[in-house]
Amino acid sequence: xxxxxxxxxxxxxxxxxxxxxxxxxxxxxxxxxxxxxxxxxxxxxxxxxxxxxxxxxxxxxxxxxxxxxxxxxxxxxxxxxxxxxxxxxxxxxxxxxxxxxxxxxxxxxxxxxxxxxxxxxxxxxxxxxxxxxxxxxxxxxxxxxxxxxxxxxxxxxxxxxxxxxxxxxxxxxxxxxxxxxxxxxxxxxxxxxxxxxxxxxxxxxxxxxxxxxxxxxxxxxxxxxxxxxxxxxxxxxxxxxxxxxxxxxxx
Length: 251
Ligand SMILES: [Zn+2]
Description:
Elements: H1 2-26, E1 41-43, H2 44-47, E2 52-53, E3 77-79, H3 80-94, E4 98-104, H4 109-120, H5 128-131, E5 157-164, E6 169-170, H6 193-208, E7 211-214, E8 217-223
Parallel strand pairs: 2-4
Antiparallel strand pairs: 1-3, 4-5, 5-6, 5-8, 7-8
Helix pairs in contact: 3-6
The chain binds zinc ion.
């Protein structure tokens, strides 16, 4: 009798273990990559040649007012999955008479660290007039304008607007890239119906091709199924060359 109980206990344990193992197998493996590994990234314009680039953090017309750490060239990098989806968005809006204009894509962690250092230096208000005239710089962390982590650092997030091929100008979105204020919220309605519709043209095209929006910035979108949801990369922004391993030391 005692032996039979033992057998039953063993059988129950085996069933529990196998159910547990089956459940574990069902879970998709979390993709974690070394943070300096750029092998899964592409130069955005290699995949989306119709895109126009205006890489604000390589230049000085940005909220800091200087070139941002980690931007070695005025180019945009993305994971190949995000770039492929953005190609579909580009083809979509081209049929409507627009091109994508890219402000930023992959952003290395050292760039985010630069933003954090800048935010802590409340005396540095060089670009206040252009990007945050109504905001006291000391509230940037509190009001979550600056974070210590950015989705951009995971490589599948892009900041962009639409360029009208007929007028040869950007579409009027009722607000500008990197403006610190509620006017940047995509659902902000104290703008003209035409400006609001422009935001929606961009938003609808991005959502149709696998991106999700952010409720505080009309220009910011992340690939819904981003391949590296937990990895914050550190390699700098410069053209990808397919035959040069990213780990090769710089010449
Ligand atoms: Zn962004």
